[in-house]
Design goal:
disordered N terminus; G-protein coupled receptors family 1 profile domain-containing protein; two-stranded antiparallel ribbon; about 350 residues; mainly alpha; 12 helices
Length: about 350
């Protein structure tokens, strides 16, 4: 049976804001995961920024990695607030101003992170294709100055895409609980569910489908280009090993992005279909928001926070730099132990 329009929208609003009254164990589990991701993201992104500064080579890919680390560092700073919200059964304690600001910063950095990942896939294909050609051809991403302009454009697009969060995020009391959610004012003649549906559809299109299409296309073209250039190479030669490494890294990057974001975007798409009256609000949808949606958000956030670490560890020069840094950190204690040992050995003088 279809719910009355007012009741249906009220439950839909609660599902979008509260994401369900999940169990205590689930809330504690998600809060712990948020805390772990926050700690790893802070340490990891600071480490990436340090390595990028110490091993800086002016290239578009390195610039995108640096911007991605800055973006995700800002993003992880918001996670403690969302962890507290989860622990308190999605009750918001920090006021309307913090709700608006944190929602906007979270959305902006989510879009920026995905956009930088997309730009990195384009830059990587362009760099490898240019290096393997007999002569280097000019292009959009040749030189760091062009990449800087593209980074500025990405930030502008992320700021614009997240404006609905900055404008419409607010606190609202629903069923006696104060929640932080995106709420479009319900005025006379204003089809609020429709506009909420468009808002979430934008998230699916700009934050997942379009970037995933571009990333997948770039990496497929990259693998095909390398295969075509080395079609006559031996099965155990260096070119075959290079192709195998590129294919492996491509598969990891695409699959990690797809698998981490797919569950969240699938549930968001389900909500879009309900808001656009293509599907009816159901108890199954409410339960999915209660128990599955918080987990999918946590999974998606984990992917975004750890992206720079993931990219750097796949590059040999950064693995070497990381080993040297860790050795330097450990070397003072090693040196101290050697001095103590030498001083404790009696001499025959």
């Amino acid at each position: 049976m279809e719910l009355p329009r007012s009741l249906s929208f009220h439950n839909l609003e609660r599902a979008d804001g509260l994401q369900g009254g999940s169990s205590i164990l689930l809330r504690i589990f998600i809060s712990i995961i948020y805390s772990v991701v926050c700690a790893l993201g802070l340490v990891g992104n600071v480490l990436v920024l340090y390595l990028m500064k110490s091993k800086w080579k002016k290239s578009s890919i390195n610039l995108f990695v640096t911007c991605l680390a800055v973006t995700d560092f800002q993003f992880v700073l918001t996670l403690p607030f969302w962890a507290v919200e989860n622990a308190l059964d999605f009750t918001w304690l920090f006021g309307k101003a913090m709700c608006k600001m944190l929602s906007y910063v979270t959305a902006m950095n989510m879009y920026a992170s995905v956009f930088f990942l997309t730009a990195m896939s384009i830059a990587r294909y362009h760099a490898v294709a240019s290096a393997l050609k007999s002569r280097r051809q000019g292009g959009l991403l040749d030189g760091c100055s062009s990449a800087k302009w593209l980074c500025a454009l990405i930030w502008i697009l992320a700021i614009l895409a997240s404006l609905p969060n900055g404008i419409f995020s607010t606190t609202s009391t629903i069923f006696g609980e104060e929640l932080c959610l995106v709420k479009i004012p319900d005025s006379q003649g204003n089809n609020t569910p429709f506009w909420l549906g468009l808002y979430h559809a934008q998230k699916v299109l700009l934050g997942f489908l379009l970037p995933l299409t571009i990333i997948t296309l770039c990496y497929l073209l990259l693998v095909r280009f390398i295969s075509d250039r080395h079609v006559g190479a031996s099965s155990c030669g260096p070119s075959t090993k290079r192709r195998s490494k590129v294919t492996k890294s491509v598969t990891i990057v695409v699959l990690s992005f797809f698998l981490c974001w797919l569950p969240n975007q699938a549930l968001t798409t389900w909500g879009v279909l309900i808001k656009l009256n293509l599907l009816h609000f159901s108890h199954a949808y409410f339960l999915s928001q209660a128990y599955l949606f918080p987990i999918t958000v946590c999974l998606a956030h984990s992917n975004s926070c750890l992206n720079p670490i993931f990219y750097c560890l796949m590059r040999r020069e950064f693995r070497k730099a990381l080993k040297k840094l860790l050795w330097r950190i450990a070397s003072p204690s090693t040196t101290t132990m050697v001095l103590i040992t030498n001083l404790s050995i009696p001499t025959n003088k």
